[in-house]
Amino acid sequence: MDERTARMCLASVTEPGHPAVGTAVAEFGAEAVWIGLLGGDEGPLTARARLIRPAELVQSTKATGQRFVIPGDDEWPVGLADLAGCDPVQQLSGEPVGLWVTGGGHLGELSATALAVVGSRASTAYGDLVAADFSADLSEAGRTVISGGAYGIDAAAHRGALAGRTPSIAVLACGLDSPYPRGHTRLFERLAESGVLISELPPGEHPTRVRFLARNRLIAAIGAGVIMVEAAVRSGARNTLTWATVLHRVVMAVPGPVTSATSVTPHRLIRDAEAVLVSSAAEVLELLSPLGRATGSRPSEARATDSLSVDELRLFESVPGRGARGADELAVRAGLPMPTCLALLSQLADRGYLRQDTEGRWRLPPRAAAG
Question: Which of 80, 94, 228, 269 is the most buried (most CB within 10 A)?
């Protein structure tokens, strides 16, 4: 039996996130661990291992259009190595022994620019809009959006990414031959066209609560950071951010209405300095850039009229957005003596703020009038 098949067999009989499995494989190799498991004392794990038919497992993987990738493959996400030896979260830890993958994308290439967007399953219209907009903008900027394929924020993030130019990654807590939730079958099909679906579980396996928690560590580890859009007081998405913190990823949260129950957790994370507040994809990209450098220009907060004196500004604002006024009317409206008004009008014209028409009246230049 080769290393890949041994890892596939181990992944089929052990639960994801069991730290002892990864440790044993790293120390002795997958083949030795599998042989030892088959010859071990009678127990549930050994009994389960003896039911595995390696050739049938390999065949079922191929028959369902999947591939099994392991550490060392060019498709293996580099970030998963950080799970080896890291502190456990809810007694889960460890680098996966392998991953089942399906889809037209290249997992290794996509994971190199990945960023997770997570949140509540019971999301609001606001949360869905924010998740979709963030993800679309990140995808357009060349970032791979990774999420868990669930209802709510996960689905909004994936759909937003589909509107961009970079494929998305969905990490599932079940076998890829029957992805959960069933209501997202079409979404998963669209994601797999150019992106990938991945799982630690073999074909035929169903999701459980513990498997969802183990799945969260992959979402956090693969990406360079995690953005929480919405989450109530008790939310599985909080677990993903805990993993991101343990793995030293960039943790971000989007604020929401103070009256919204689904924004309680993001607000608390921001208040307790456990997450950085982000309000746009541009701010996310800035955080992920070297030394926090911005990746694009920000809108200027300065106004063109900030350099005007009080009298100049009062006079400038007396000129209508459309149409024109004579100097005498402008002097009255601005409360300025006529000589002062004429001098200031000339100065504003020289600096491009105003222009005088053929009838001697004053108006805004075309660009200013349009604004």
Answer: 228
